[in-house]
């Protein structure tokens, strides 16, 4: 580690060499982390749900199954054993998380966002380890959660730990955290471009972008994706996660009208999702028991809901998509929506909201992106089928509504339209529907701006503690000293020949703290403060001997009216004083007035509030 740190210090950041090395390291670990997480999840499924309940959750076509379970598509013989397995899984996950790393609870993406903004990019080394195990147990035993949260926190955690070990700056650590998050998402969903954009976009809720993250995240995401794909069999190695209809065609322009209606429905379901999710989170948090067992309660309730729905639909296995990832039923909706039916699709979409909220809001470990894909995709497919019945001449591909629903729903909930559009396109391998996907994602984003699924997002870089210093400089550079200092303020100027005893008497008649010293021509030759004089108060023998020229500081730090306030702030810091002389730029010995530090900060705060108010008004 020492040799690596020494080598990196010799590389010029501007030449990108340093970030290439660091991003490759983060990408390798994120790819390996995705492999280990995938394997751990499948091991848990095989040893729990398959072994005890004779049930294996269905997956997407592009998934690689390590174990041949030998279980057909028939009914589950003992469905209530699934509830027992989920309860035990929730208990194990809760004990693991709350005993060793409470920060690993819930959906990991929010924790990574919080670390970026509020914790200087710091993530403890144990978080990725505990998150991997706890999430594999939660999802592997049937908990309704996604994989992006755990893998995002795994990648982000390694990026943070590596930056800390290399003693990089706080800014660099934040970039590596975000790059690791993007690499993990790009690897597990086989969407490298989307992973890079996701890392830069998911941090903010008001369509802002962390530009410094894009290149490191893109490099790390490419490497993470490549490493993960090497673990897959050749026939699916570079295939998308989901398969689509082979005859899927671009939507006609007129079909943007029903797609707009889909956006309205998706926004309504998205608001319901967020309200249920955080409503249950607040409710469960108030239960007066130790948090270690709350994930077990949530898992048990989610299991009961899922099995109850399964029995209500006469043991139709497709409705069990409300448990685990649910990708199997979503895959059906993408390839042949009509065979699934409106009833099953709506039931899965709405009940998945409840089971996901119970699983994650109770403290279970898992992501919210995967469930969002299922909820949005099934909602879209159901709407597509209904529009096909109402308008068969125009709506001929209800499967298109499933794809667009996946993107639009998460784009609205997560406030990340651009990365979501690319991610769904990469996950499905279909760019034919790029136009309606952009249309619906944009509409959902605009309609859901008041609600957000990731509570730790901040509106923009202006509100982020990570950029507080940057924006202080930016705003101050747009203000001139002449806007702040009061040139009419009366200033007591001390002649350089004035004896000390007269200076002491003069100071007693004014509240002024800093005193410019001038020569016979009225030019400023120095400055002193009241504190400088207090040192001589008890030495009266020097009162008749010393003059202003003896106590003043002749190295005067001053500003001109044309200087910006950033120059003034640097001057305040450099000499550690609270008041600066303002001088004529043509004659820096001619005093025009003084600039006070408190006045500068107050003026900055007023301008900042005006800027924020203008931003809010432009967004409304």
Supply the key terms:
620 residues, mainly alpha, Clc chloride channel, CBS-domain, three-stranded mixed β-sheet, two-stranded antiparallel sheet, 59% helix
Walk me through the structure:
The chain is mainly alpha-helical and 620 residues long. The chain has two domains: 2-466, Clc chloride channel, CATH 1.10.3080.10; 478-605, CBS-domain (Roll), CATH 3.10.580.10. It has 24 helices and five strands. It has helices at residues 2-9, 17-53, 80-100, 108-118, 126-140, 148-165, 170-188, 192-201, 211-229, 256-285, 294-312, 327-335, 337-340, 342-361, 369-390, 398-414, 417-428, 434-447, 468-477, 500-507, 530-534, 548-551, 565-575, 597-619, and strands spanning 494-495, 514-518, 524-529, 579-584, 587-596. The strands form two sheets. A three-stranded mixed β-sheet has the order 1-2-3. Strands 4-5 form a two-stranded antiparallel ribbon. Strand 1, helix 20 (500-507) and strand 2 (514-518) form a beta-alpha-beta unit. The chain is elongated.
CATH homologous superfamily designation of the largest domain: Clc chloride channel
Query: Could you say which overall geometry the principal axes of the C-alpha atoms support?
Result: elongated
Low-confidence stretches: 10-15
CATH architecture of the largest domain: Orthogonal Bundle
The ordered string of helix (H) and strand (E) elements is HHHHHHHHHHHHHHHHHHHEHEEHHHEEH
Share in β-strands? under 5%
């Amino acid at each position: 580690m020492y040799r690596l740190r020494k080598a990196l210090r010799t590389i010029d950041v501007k030449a990108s060499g340093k970030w290439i090395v660091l991003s490759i390291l983060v990408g390798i670990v994120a790819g390996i982390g995705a492999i280990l997480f995938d394997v751990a999840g499948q091991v848990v499924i095989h040893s729990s749900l398959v072994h005890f309940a004779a049930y294996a959750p269905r997956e997407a076509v592009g998934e690689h199954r390590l174990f041949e379970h030998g279980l057909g598509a028939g009914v589950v013989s003992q469905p209530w054993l699934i509830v027992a397995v989920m309860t035990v899984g929730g208990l194990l996950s809760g004990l693991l998380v709350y005993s060793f790393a409470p920060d690993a609870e819930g959906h990991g993406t929010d924790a990574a966002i919080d670390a970026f903004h509020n914790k200087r990019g710091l993530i403890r080394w144990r978080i990725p380890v505990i998150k991997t195990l706890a999430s594999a147990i939660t999802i592997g035993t049937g908990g309704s959660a996604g994989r992006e949260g755990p893998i995002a926190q795994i990648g982000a955690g390694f990026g943070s730990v590596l930056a800390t070990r290399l003693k990089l700056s706080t800014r660099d650590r934040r970039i590596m955290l975000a790059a690791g998050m993007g690499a993990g998402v790009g690897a597990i969903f086989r969407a490298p471009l989307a992973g890079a954009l996701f890392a830069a976009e998911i941090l903010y809720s008001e369509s802002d972008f962390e530009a410094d993250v894009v290149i490191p995240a893109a490099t790390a995401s490419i490497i993470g994706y490549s490493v993960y794909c090497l673990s897959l069999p050749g026939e699916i190695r570079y295939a998308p996660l989901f398969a689509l209809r082979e005859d899927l065609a671009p939507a006609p322009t007129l079909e943007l009208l029903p797609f707009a209606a889909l956006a309205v429905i998706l926004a309504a379901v998205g608001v319901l999702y967020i309200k249920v999710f955080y409503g249950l989170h607040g409710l469960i948090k108030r239960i007066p028991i130790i948090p270690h067992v709350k994930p077990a309660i949530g898992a048990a309730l989610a299991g009961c809901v899922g099995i109850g729905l399964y029995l209500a639909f006469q043991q139709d296995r497709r409705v069990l998509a409300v448990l685990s990832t649910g990708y199997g039923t979503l895959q059906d909706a993408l390839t042949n929506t009509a065979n699934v039916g409106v009833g099953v699709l709506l039931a899965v979409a709405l009940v998945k909201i409840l089971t996901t909220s119970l699983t994650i809001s109770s403290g279970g470990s898992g992501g919210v992106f995967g469930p969002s894909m299922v909820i949005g995709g099934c909602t879209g497919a159901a709407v597509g089928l209904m529009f096909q019945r109402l308008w068969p001449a125009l709506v001929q591909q209800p499967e298109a509504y499933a794809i667009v629903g996946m993107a639009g729903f998460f784009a609205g909930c997560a406030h990340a339209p651009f990365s979501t559009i690319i991610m769904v396109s990469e996950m499905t391998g279909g760019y034919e529907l790029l136009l309606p996907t952009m249309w619906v994602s944009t509409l959902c984003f605009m309609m859901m701006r008041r609600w957000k699924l990731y509570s730790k997002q901040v509106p923009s870089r202006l509100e982020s503690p990570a950029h507080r210093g940057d924006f202080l400089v930016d705003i101050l550079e747009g203000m001139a000293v002449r806007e702040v200092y009061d040139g009419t303020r009366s200033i007591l100027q001390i002649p350089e020949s004035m004896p000390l005893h007269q200076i002491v008497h003069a100071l007693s008649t004014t509240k002024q703290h800093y005193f410019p010293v001038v020569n016979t021509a009225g030019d400023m030759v120095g400055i002193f403060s009241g504190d400088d004089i207090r040192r001589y108060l008890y030495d009266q023998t020097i009162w008749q001997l010393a003059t202003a020229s003896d106590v003043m500081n002749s190295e005067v730090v001053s500003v001109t009216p044309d200087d910006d306030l950033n120059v003034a702030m640097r001057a305040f810091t450099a000499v550690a004083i609270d008041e600066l002389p303002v001088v004529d730029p043509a004659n820096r010995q001619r005093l025009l007035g003084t600039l006070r530090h408190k006045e500068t900060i107050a003026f900055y705060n007023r301008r900042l509030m005006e800027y924020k108010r203008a931003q809010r008004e432009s967004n409304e």
